[in-house]
Structures are given as C-alpha cells and as structure tokens.
C-alpha cells in the first residue's frame, strides 16, 4: 500500500516545522508520516547523511509520494539535489513540492516529457544552490550591518520571522509574485515587496533583534 511522506528540514532554532506543515495542508496535502531534521544545513549535509533524512532511503518504496516544501529541503547543492531526486524516481517514488505544485515522476516513457522533467529538475537544483549562496551573502551583510548599529538604535522589531523570510526567499526564487507569497506566509503584500527590495536589510533587522543567522 502506497503512502505519502512529508519531509521537512529546519536549519535554525527559530524556524519551525509547523509552518511548513501548515502550508502543505493548506495546499491540500495529507500525510501518512512526517519526517523532520532539525538544525541541519542543506548546503553541507546531503540528505543521505542527515539523522532523519537518511531514513527516507529505506522507508520509501515504489508508489510512495515524498512531499517537500521545495527542492531546497532536499539539499542546497546542485549535484546532491539532482542525484537524490533521480535516485527516488528510479525507485518509483514520486516527489511533489508544495511551492509551485511540481511533480517529479520517473514513470514516464515519453522521451520528450522525460527531457522536460529532467531539465526542470536541473533548473530547480541550480536555483536552490544559487539561492543558498545569495542567502549566505545577505546574512553576512546583515550581520555586519547589525554589529555596527546594534549598540545604537535597533529600529522597529521585524514583523516577520526567519522562517517566514526563508519562505519569501524560496518563493521569490521560483518567480512567485507578492500576492502568492503573502498568501503562503501570512505577511502583507507591502512587507513582501519591502523584503524583496533588500534581503540584506531584512537579515540585519533579524540579527539586531536577537535572531542570529
């Protein structure tokens, strides 16, 4: 009997699984099992080496569905992400994403459909790595700015959490509009536009208020 497994990865103390799961359920997903890795980097730790992620390789079988918020939950490294998705497809596991509602299924026999699917996997994996690198640079800039003015005026407390900022960043990377991101995060459209305009400033505000990267 096939089953649907939701996998979540949270890399910071402030991020929560509940937000990812709520977002998935709001999109109409239901799960037979939820698997979570806490405090694990998607950049440096492949899925197969994570405490809970590695269970997926034994747990998932042909006909099962693996649901993730986006491909960056599987990894932030191009090679790791593409290898992981292709491994599961070879095993007959279907991968679905909450953001953009993408489906990666290895069962297609049509060469054109397979080519389009593989190109999309490559694009998404490359985007995940590029976004991780951009995030790292934004955090560096944010931390540097926060250290300079932390002893002065902290400014208004951010109206968003690091988890929400991560969703905003991920959805922007897929080309989502402000309205769609607002619906997914609960943040106002104006807040989304402000965050999009200066991610480094957004990171700096979080750090000034104690949310270390």
Automatic annotation (TrEMBL):
<feature type="active site" description="O-(5'-phospho-DNA)-serine intermediate">
    <location>
        <position position="11"/>
    </location>
</feature>
<comment type="similarity">
    <text>Belongs to the site-specific recombinase resolvase family.</text>
</comment>
<dbReference type="InterPro" id="IPR006118">
    <property type="entry name" value="Recombinase_CS"/>
</dbReference>
<dbReference type="InterPro" id="IPR050639">
    <property type="entry name" value="SSR_resolvase"/>
</dbReference>
<dbReference type="InterPro" id="IPR006119">
    <property type="entry name" value="Resolv_N"/>
</dbReference>
<dbReference type="InterPro" id="IPR036162">
    <property type="entry name" value="Resolvase-like_N_sf"/>
</dbReference>
<keyword id="KW-0238">DNA-binding</keyword>
<dbReference type="InterPro" id="IPR006120">
    <property type="entry name" value="Resolvase_HTH_dom"/>
</dbReference>
<dbReference type="GO" id="GO:0015074">
    <property type="term" value="P:DNA integration"/>
</dbReference>
<keyword id="KW-0233">DNA recombination</keyword>
<dbReference type="GO" id="GO:0003677">
    <property type="term" value="F:DNA binding"/>
</dbReference>
<dbReference type="Pfam" id="PF00239">
    <property type="entry name" value="Resolvase"/>
</dbReference>
<feature type="domain" description="Resolvase/invertase-type recombinase catalytic">
    <location>
        <begin position="3"/>
        <end position="150"/>
    </location>
</feature>
<dbReference type="GO" id="GO:0000150">
    <property type="term" value="F:DNA strand exchange activity"/>
</dbReference>
<protein>
    <submittedName>
        <fullName>DNA invertase Pin-like site-specific DNA recombinase</fullName>
    </submittedName>
</protein>
<dbReference type="Pfam" id="PF02796">
    <property type="entry name" value="HTH_7"/>
</dbReference>
<keyword id="KW-0229">DNA integration</keyword>
